[in-house]
Amino acid sequence: MTLTQLRKLKREGEKITCLTAYDASFAHLLEQANIDILLVGDSLGMVIQGHDSTLPVTVDDMIYHCQQVHRGCQQALLMVDMPFMSYATPNLALKSAARLMGEGYAQVVKLEGGGWLIETVQVLTERGIPVCAHLGLTPQSIHQIGGYRVQGKTERGVERIRDDAVALQQAGASLLLLECVPGQLAEEITALLDIPVIGIGAGVKCDAQILVLYDMLGITPGKRPSFSKDFLQETGSILAAIEAFVKAVKEGTFPGQEHTFE
Question: Among residues 31, 126, 155, 179, which one is catalytic?
Fold first, then answer.
């Protein structure tokens, strides 16, 4: 899977599937189910390391897990989160991204943030580093935004997210991830942009859907996000659960209304 192929899927209206992965064994299972994109997410700080946020995760952590996923990944596009403060300046972002691609074998790096990232996205993409921008709920800013809350519910919030999405595409971003935004806003942005839009808690109209692997298997400790679904409960095996997720996304039956914010 390449970025060119993903853009083709968007143009043809075929849904794109994405799940997080943190090791070679799960990556191999995800490959069997023909997942399009594997994201080595900094969510590993919570589901693997047991922290209460993603903030303690380091670049070395991400490289370690990206290397593992790469060993089990033959077909999917391999994307990796850039952890907290690893892209605070364009120069630092360039150094961090170079390590994640050179040592971790990532093909795309994902950064959380809006307009302030425009220069950084330009610097990375001009030097051959593909970028996925991340708007809406940005977990690395959890203390600043006051918790895991839906974003883009006010007129000002809608305008900011929409403007940032356009600006980041113009800066060179190859993908956009929207997290925890109203379904109507996500639909508008998906139609507005030429690049594929990945949704998580952003309604069914996005080009792609992603979930945290441990959430969709029902094994994340504590309360599962309301936008997620336990596919393992209905299927009885991990591979069948992943295949059910792929089928539901491709057919447009997931996410449902109950997984979507107004």
Answer: 179
